[in-house]
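Page 42, continued from yesterday. The earlier attempt failed because a stray header line got pasted into the input along with the sequence. Redoing it now with the clean sequence only.
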Amino acid sequence: MTIEHRLEALGRRLPKLLRLRDADFLFFPVSNREMNKIKRTLVAREDFRGKEARKIKKEKMVNVLSFPEPEYFPHPEGKKKMLGEVYLNLDYALVETRGTEGRGRNQLSYEILGFLLIHGFLHLLGYRHDGKSDTIRMQRLEQKLCRAFKIPPRHSEPWDRTSS
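This time it went through. Structure tokens are written below.
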């Protein structure tokens, strides 16, 4: 099974595992160049403020961006509640994969992309890592989900080192 198929399966199972049976979300693997376009648009918004906004502005390579669906956005085509969209930075995943034993220079890792998908999905649900207690709460759920999908949990993410 390809990485794309494995990620699609993970994306379908995540809401169900958290008992969100009538919920769905979209995810898009994008290049760092595309991620920077999204980031520039986001940073230009006047309502984009706070600790997370300052951190994203400083980062050279953002690993994942999540955008919750506006509450009353119409979706007549589906019965499921759309949670939002998650963007995964493929170039970030490639850089992280290079440190993984047995991986080629341009070979993506399902484990890293799967972790990023879980991380971004939790952001859609409102989980944050602004403070120490928020970070611990989010990491515990990430670890639980990683175990359920047989993905090694990651603890050396840049956002983890900056949390207070």
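Notes: The longest strand covers residues 81-89.
Reminder to self: strip header lines before submitting.
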